[in-house]
């Protein structure tokens, strides 16, 4: 079930795949090249030692996204270094960003809406580790509760649920420490509020973990301001591409969507997009939230 009229506010196409791959590389640098939290690795090792070949380890990635540098392929390398070889399953609302069938290298892909409770019930408690990230612009405030309950429904007892999110409320574009988005970012955040997105989703997810009585909850944050210059420059490119997508999609949707972003006309939106391309000396920032919890 989904109550969102516009579930994806950014594109789902080849150009979006390039941006998502860049975003993946930024997160990899921020995380020091390691995606798997140590409690997950430790737990998977214990499970693997105690299970038989007909009960393999299973990991699911929701909103799995793109192909070439997809999260699942990155963690497979980490898992192998730790002597782990689980089945890897990737789910997404759309399949047009999945790798071609002949290039999936043993990873299983399928379509599934994170809000489709019936389909999650059909999957059942099947996974030892469930991961999802970057649903910030997709889910409304109320839909987060459904999404987390669905994720817990496919997680085995003792398994870990792991969300990684970039809250819109903590995005910033600055020059010399002062706001420098020209109002675009502020309009975007106001638009997210109108669309009932959660600008503080990191803390909201942690609270939902607590409500669902997850154990060993950890909530870590990494601020891009504390990262190296290359990561910051990569994020400048990523932020420009993302803002351009928001504006382009608003133009495509029509006057109502443009007004939600604070533009009175298509011409005004195009002018602002040109300004973004030409701007220099500014820096885009975000804060990554990593929320981990174990199902009782």
UniProtKB/TrEMBL annotation:
InterPro entries: SAM-dependent_MTases_sf. This is Methyltransferase domain-containing protein. It comes from Dactylellina haptotyla (strain CBS 200.50) (Nematode-trapping fungus).
């Amino acid at each position: 079930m989904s109550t969102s009229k516009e579930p994806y506010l950014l594109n789902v196409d080849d150009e979006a795949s390039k941006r998502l791959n860049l975003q993946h590389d930024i997160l990899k640098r921020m995380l020091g090249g390691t995606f798997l939290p140590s409690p997950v690795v430790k737990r998977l090792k214990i499970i693997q030692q105690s299970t038989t070949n007909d009960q393999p380890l299973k990991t699911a990635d929701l909103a799995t996204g793109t192909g070439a540098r997809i999260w699942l392929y990155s963690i497979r390398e980490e898992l192998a270094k730790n002597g782990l070889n689980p089945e890897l399953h990737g789910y997404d609302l759309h399949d047009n960003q999945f790798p071609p069938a002949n290039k999936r290298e043993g990873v299983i892909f399928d379509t599934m809406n994170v809000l489709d409770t019936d389909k999650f019930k059909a999957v059942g408690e099947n996974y030892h580790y469930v991961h999802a990230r970057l649903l910030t612009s997709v889910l409304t405030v109320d839909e987060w509760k459904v999404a987390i309950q669905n994720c817990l429904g496919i997680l085995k007892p003792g398994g870990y649920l792991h969300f990684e999110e970039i809250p819109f409320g903590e995005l910033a574009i600055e020059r010399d420490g002062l706001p420098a988005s020209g109002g675009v970012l502020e309009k975007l955040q106001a638009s997210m509020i109108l669309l009932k997105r959660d600008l503080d989703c990191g803390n909201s997810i942690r609270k939902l973990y607590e409500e669902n009585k997850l154990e060993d909850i950890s909530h870590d944050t990494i601020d891009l301001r504390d990262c190296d210059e290359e990561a910051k420059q990569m994020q400048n490119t990523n932020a420009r591409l993302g803002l351009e997508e928001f504006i382009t999609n608003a133009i495509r949707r029509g006057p109502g969507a443009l007004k939600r972003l604070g533009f009175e006309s298509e011409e005004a939106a195009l002018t602002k997009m040109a300004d973004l391309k030409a701007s220099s000396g500014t820096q885009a920032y975000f804060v990554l939230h990593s929320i981990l919890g174990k199902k009782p």
